[in-house]
Amino acid sequence: MHCPFCRHTDSRVIDSRANDDGTAIRRRRQCPECGRRFTTVENASLTIIKRSGATEPFSRDKIVSGVRRACQGRPVSEDDLALLAQRVEEALRQQGQAEVEAHEIGLAILGPLRELDEVAYLRFASVYQAFDSLEDFESAIAVLRAEREPVGTEPVPSKTRSKT
Ligand SMILES: [Zn+2]
Fold first, then answer.
1. Of 9, 17, 58, 94, which is most buried by a Cβ count within 10 Å?
2. Residue 45 Cα, ligand 1 centroid: separation in angstroms?
3. CB-based neighbours (< 5 A) of ligand 1, an ion
4. Rounded distance from Cα 35 to ligand 1 centre (Å)
5. Which distant-in-sequence residues (6+ apart) come within 8 Å of 93 by Cβ?
6. Are 44 and 23 in contact (CB under 8 A)?
7. For residue 34, how far is the Cα from the chain centroid?
8. 85 backbone dihedrals φ, ψ, rounded to 5°
9. What is the pLDDT of residue 83?
10. Ligand 1 centre from 26 Cα, in Å?
C-alpha cells in the first residue's frame, strides 16, 4: 500500500479491526518513510453476474429499489428494506463465492421478504418466478397458508377456519 502523503511504496499495519457486520476490515497504517498514519478499508468483493453475462458489484441499494416496488402501499418502512438488503447480502456472502448469478439474488430475497410482508412477497415472487396464471398465485398462496397454520400462536379469524 503506497503512502498517500509521500508515495513511499510500503506501509506498516498498526491496527486491524472488522466492522460490525464483518463485511469489511479497517486497517490503520503507518508510513515507515514519513511516519504519517492513514486508514484503509478492505471489502471482500461480491460480484453479480447478470443474465447477459455482464458483471457488476453487489449493491444493497439495488436490492432496496427492487423490493420497494413490491412493497408499495404495504406497511414496510425504509428501515425494514435496509435490513432486508443486509440479510440478503449476508446470505449471499455466506455461500462463500465471490461471484453470484443474478437469479440467486432473487432467491435470497424471497425468504426474508416473506417474513416481512406476505403481499409484497407474492408480488415479488409473481415477477421473479414469472407467474403467468391464477393457478400460480393460488399454489403460492396455498404454500403460505400451509406453512403459517402450524404456528398457531395468534388466533386465526374464524372465517378461515370454516373448513374444519
Ligand atoms: Zn509517507
1. 58
2. 28
3. 3, 5-6, 8, 31, 33-34
4. 6
5. 23, 44, 46
6. yes
7. 42
8. -60, -35
9. 95
10. 19
> How far away, in angstroms, is 27 Cα from ligand 1 center?
16
Classify strands 55-57 and 99-101 as parallel, antiparallel or unpaired.
Answer: unpaired
- In the block, residue with C-alpha cell 447480502: 89
Determine which of 7-16, 58-67, 94-103 has the lowest per-residue pLDDT on average: 94-103
Global pTM reads: 0.64
For residue 108, give the C-alpha cell. 435470497
Report the pLDDT value the prediction gives residue 22, as an integer from 0 to 100.
65
For ligand 1, the distance from its centroid to the CA atom of residue 10, given in whole angstroms, is: 8
Asked if residue 71 lies in contact with residue 120, where contact means CB atoms within 8 angstroms, the answer is yes
More confident residue, 151 or 84: 84
Concatenating the DSSP letter of every residue in the chain gives ---TTT--S--EEEEEEE-TTSSEEEEEEE-TTT--EEEEEEE---EEEPTTS-EEE--HHHHHHHHHHHTTTSS--HHHHHHHHHHHHHHHHHTT-SEEEHHHHHHHHHHHHHHH-HHHHHHHHHHHTT--SHHHHHHHHHHHHHHHGGG--SPPPGGGGTT-
